[in-house]
Each structure stands twice: as structure tokens, then as C-alpha cells.
Amino acid sequence: MKWNFLNIPAILCLIVLLLCQLESTAQYHEVKARSHKFFEKALTAYRLNQTDETLRWLEKAIAADSMNLDAYRLLSDVSDETNNLQLKIQALAKVVQIDQAVSQSVLVSLAGLYQQSGEFEQALTTWKILLQRNPAHVLALEQAERCQALIALIQHPYPVQLVQLGAPVNTEANEYWPLISADDSILYFTRLMSSEQHFLYERLFYATRSKMSWSEVQQLKLDDNNLVNEGTMSMTANGRLVFISACGRADGWGSCDLYYFVLRNGKWNGPVNAGPTINTKHWEAQPSVSASGNQLYFSSNRPGGFGSRDLWVSQISENSRGELAFSMPVNLGSQVNTAFDDFSPFIHADDQTLYFASEGHLNFGKSDVFIGRLVNEQWTEVENLGVPVNSPASDDGLVVSPTANVAMFASDREGSLRQSKDLYQFQLPERFLPQRVGYVKGRVFNAETLELLNATVRVVDLDDRSVQEIEAQANKGYLAILKENKVYAFHVEKPGYLLYSNHFNLTEPVSFSQAKVMDIHLQPIKTHLRMVLSNVFFDLDSHVLKSTSIPELDELIRFLKLNATLKIEISGHTDNTGRADYNHDLSLRRAEAIASYLQKEIDNDRIVVKGYGSDQPIESNETEAGRSKNRRCELRILSQ
Questions:
Q1: How confident is the model over 121-166, as pLDDT tens digits?
Q2: Right CATH for 5-155 from 3.30.420.40, 1.20.210.10, 1.25.40.10, 2.30.40.10
Q3: Would the pTM count as exceeding 0.90?
Q4: 322 contacts: CB under 8 Å, gap ≥ 6
């Protein structure tokens, strides 16, 4: 046999490679064995409920062998029990990386965890892996689309600057369910308190605006009962009617009920349980009363909804004794409510823009805030308020001041004090603004003595004839809500004083002022006093009353009934355009039309009718503005 000595080096190299491979294999098995030994120790500790020991041995097992699939699976289970979301994600991500045949349920769990932590790109990637295996997987298809929508929202944040309110409003306790007064000057909110026995309970607090910050916080005590939870306050624009949630009261119908207080003569009367139409044996809470006091929105898990908690609305009416009655609540429907929790409703003063929180709509985390609009008595598709308002944390309780100058909500996002819920404020992007709403406020005086008066303010929408009735208090005055594109009759009445009448035409944007201070000086009734009937309307050259005049005439009837001994003159006046005889005749016929309406409820002998034509101008007829003021109807006191 002949040897080819030229191949000896190659044979030696092969031998060396084989020896190295054998050594590597031995080391591999040694690593696996060591890692498995650590894993067994971790498993024993886990069975003994020794969490720290389990984690310590798993760390060693993974350090010894970074591909130990059993160790990552056990780490996933431990992270569940320790409520460690990021550790759970890391463990499952490793399981998916190592095990190419991992079950679909693991992929679903990992994708869901990514979404829970706000990592939507990673979630989308995981859903796509699942769809590669099962293109018809319904949940994966739905959630992949959801992630793509959320990623688009993240990539297009709104130009919003969130301001954490800080001290003294925010503390290490939970602050939530804010409410902003109609003139943006007072903040109400709920705080979760802890007793010496570590019993948690809710209380209402308030702070007043001081320049750019909020004053020292004070507890709001509507009644003397401090034995139960009471929070989630909602108030009408005039401050006369307040709703709260209260739990555990002896007069309750369920676990939590809705109650109301009515302000009468400067004192809160209540709490009054809203009764069995609103409250049931189930959970009713988080009221939002409309600015006018005509509607009550709330959240409830009563039967008949779409999910756990739904949003409902009830119509409010008030009888002559000041008692409230509620219509049967109506579910807001599938456009608003989902199979999950929908809660913290806030109906804006425009009566058509709803802000609320949901765990079921397209959301970034535990709950997000959304907007829906009421158009032709139907709710539009709701919209997420996007980034940075919403986050992977719990975001809810959004409220917007009537003027929309301030929006505020609660969140336990990163940066909150001790991860408790804190209040944040911001300015709404234009996309989410409600209809423009403003207010007029002031005090009522005796015009002669300047004494502050209690009086009744009535604001009538001349389109739908809805009425805001506001109690003007001597010490606080009045505040009334006005909406853009509306025409209002504005009246102030008090027995013994001449009716005050004014007119607000907000149909032209240039005429709309969101904040108007207007003090009213009422004239004590005296013979020969006059008032212009600002809200009585006729077409050109016509003596037929327009329908928009009816609220003014009804107010005159109220005035005459309040002052039952008065005898009055109703007079018509024109400018100097046209023939004098025609103007006298037209002015008389207009006065007669007014008197005819009043005489349906007022004795004829209390009313005298005159037509003065252009004989008694109150302004120059040289300008159109002057002529417009001269075309009027008046009431004059003849005797008391």
C-alpha cells in the first residue's frame, strides 16, 4: 500500500476539526445541562410560591442558555403573577423568536400585550406573523387594521400642549371628574381620600382661578353627610341645579345612584334621589346635566345596553313646585356605546357635542376620550381625540368650558404624581371644538337706589322657544348661556319693577361675543314709565305679528299678572318715511295687534292702544340706524 504523504496535512486538519466539534458538542450539552438544572430549581421555587427565588434561578438559567425555551415560558407565567407587563412581553417575544412553531394563542397574547403597552408597530408585526399562518384569522385581521389606524394617529399628533395642573389641585391621591364653571373661573373635581383606617372614599373640592393658576383647594359641602362617597359633580350653567353620584346611601336604589341639589334663596336643597326612573338596582353614576338643565346624561350598567357600562340620556322637566321629573332614559345607541365600558359623558353647553371615555372604540390603552356630535337627532361616528391627549394609560373625564377656552381631563399616565390620576388641561384643536357658545352675566340693581336685587332672568330662544329661567341673586348675580347662530329674547322681571327687555341676534359671527358682562338696572314702577318692546317683530308695511314675537308677548302677560293693578298703554311708532296718515294707521294697527294678543289673558280695561306714527321719534331720522330705532312699539305705565 502506498501512502500519499502530500495529504497528511489535510488529514491532520480534519482530525483537529473533528476534535473541536466533539469539544463544542460537549460544551453545548454541558451548557444545556447547567441551564436545565437552574430551570428545575426555578420550577421548584415557583411551585412553592417563592417568586423572588423563581426569578433568581430563571435569570441564571437564561444566562447559561439564552435559548432555553422552558425558562422563557415559565418567566412569562411569573410575570403574570407579578403584574410585570414589560417582563411578560420580553419573555413571550423570546418564545416566539425561538419556537418557529409557536401556537397561535401565544402570538395573540404577545400582540395584545404590545398593544396594551402602546407598542403598536410591534403589535402589527406580530399580527402579520399570525396572518401569514392563518390569513382568515378574524381577530388578527381586525386588530391589525386597528393598529394601523392607531399608528396613523401617532404619526400625526395634534398641536396640543398638555399642562399638568400641579399643586394645590393635584396631589399623590387620585383627582378626577373635573368640572369647569360657565365663565371658566371655578374648577370643581373629585378626590379619592383615605381615612385613618385606610378606607377609601370620594369628596368634592373646588378651586378658583387666580390669574394663570388655581387658588388653594377647598372642600365643597353641599350637605352635612360625610358618611358616603359623593363625587362626579355636574352643574347647569346658571348654577341652580347640581347632580352628583353617591354610593352607599340609605335611600339609594342600587350600589351608586344619582342625586340632585336645587339652589333656592341662596341655600342648597338636597340631596334628592333622582328616583326609580333614573336609578335602578344596578349602577348609575357620572352625571352630566345640560347647560340649560333640560337633559341628564349618565353611565349605567342597567339591562338593555350594548356592554358593561353604556351612556344614557333622560329629559328633565320641572313642575310649579320646583320638583324635577325625568323621562325614561334612552340608550345613546351603537354609534356611541360598545360591548365594553363607555363612561364619563360630558354634554357641552351647545347641546350637540358629547365628549366621553371608552374602552371599546379605537383606543390607545385602558380608556381614551372621544367626541361625538348630535346631527339631526342622530349621533355621528365618534372620533378619538388622538395624541397627545390620549395615551396607553387611563384617560377619561374630559370636560370643556362653555366658551371652549379650557378643556380638562384626568389621566394616570407617566408623569402623574405616584402614577395616581391627575388633572391636565389644554386647548382643544379646532377639529374637536364644539359649536361656539358664550355667556352673558351681571347683577341686577334698583335703578334709583342701586340696591342689589334678587330677580328672575328669562332667556328665550326665538327659534324653538326653549327658555332658560335663571335666578339672579343679589350677592351673585346671574349667568345665561348663548349659542352662536341664535336669536334670543332677554327679559328680567321682578314684582314692583318695570319689565326689562333686550334682544341678542347672534346669527352674524361678527356680532357674537363669547363673554359679555351686562348689569341690569330695573326701574321701580311709576306712572308714565316707558319700555321699548325689543322683541316684537312685523314684516315691512305689515301689522301681522311674526311668530318670533310670541315669547315677548308672553313675557308681557307674565309681567301684567305679576303686577295685577297696572293699567298700560301699548303704542306703535314709525320713522318719517312715507305719508304721515299711512304711518299713523300702520302704527295703530300694530299696537292693536299686540293688545289683541295680550287681551287673551289680560282684562281689556287695563290696556289702552295708541298709534303715534312718526310724531315721537327717539333718534334722528337722518340715518338708517336712527330710523330703525324709531320703528318700534312701546309699553307705557298709565296707573298703578
A1: 999 999 999 999 999 999 999 999 999 999 999 999 999 999 999 8
A2: 1.25.40.10
A3: no
A4: 262, 264
